[in-house]
Amino acid sequence: MSAPLPLRGVKVVELGSVIAAPYAASLLAEFGAEVVKVERPDGGDALRNMGVRANGVPLWWHVASRNKRLVTLDLKEEEGRAAFLALVDAADVLLENNRPGVMDRLGFGWKALSARNPRLVMASISGFGQTGPYAPRPGFGKIAEAFSGAVALTGAPQDIPLHVGFSLADACAGLAAVYGVAAALHARDVLGTGRGAHVDVALYEPMLRMAECQAALTRLLGTAARRQGSNDPWGFGAPGERRIATARCADGGWIAAILEPGSTLDLDALAAAQARPDALAALRAAGVQAAPVQDGMSLQQDPYFAARGDVIRTQDGTAGTLAVPGAVPHGYDRGGLRDFLPSGPPAE
């Protein structure tokens, strides 16, 4: 018999759009939380109309909205407001990523909602946080990535700073919101405070935190770290240190390898002379740490990810067969984890 889902019984209301708060809600839903996503009546979440479509439905929406109950409410009308408050009164968690001030103007700010439901944990994700002179500004993921300091470290020194090719800031903020919610629930229910908390996450802050000692090193050395391609300027790639190198193989696949200081290995030549599996085998036989540079196609084809449960196949009535990310982290009874449930239209 499967173990209970870790978050079974936790009730979550999501008043989010596009990525950050919806991503946080989807992570909670995968581990058993009951998530109700509230959408506007004028078309719902903008993510419904973004990205590549399968049979008329955006694939992004199919993944992002899974495992959620979808409800349409007009929060400017009395009936919709009453229904929303009823959801919040019964909820453990409210996730939202509106611009600071919007929730207060609607009458759904932290002070008002916590007065109604003192046990409520509210997580607010915004571009620049709930406080500070930039708080009223709109939030965009790529702007947050630049603001965090991470973009300045990415790319070759002679080239422009680079962003990664997916919504990194939004995803990091969603993750930070999830562990903020978990900490608040622990304090409420395990430490016995009995009260919720307001979790405040700015889009740029988790990436700034991930940059670790960049600010301290700059203050000590008097100069900011420079871009070193794909190498860490203060580790891999620094003088006398290992370096990370990539090369294209004869079959078109790419590999990445860590080369030791003073290594004379011609990675480009080795890769160009053979297919990727053979090149990787040769590198490992020589004691060189290497891995394939995976992409969307190879992630689905490599049996390792299927065996690990990192990529799973699911059937959707509209979009057909989809390959989607599995639930992380591991360490739970996998049989108890919730399968991906089909997304659907908003329910009145």
TrEMBL record:
Keywords: Transferase
Gene3D superfamilies: Crotonobetainyl-coa:carnitine coa-transferase, domain 1 (3.40.50.10540)
Superkingdom field: Bacteria
GO molecular function, a single term: transferase activity
SUPFAM superfamilies registered for this protein in UniProt: CoA-transferase family III (CaiB/BaiF) (SSF89796)
Signal peptide: none
This protein's name: CoA transferase
Native species: Falsiroseomonas bella
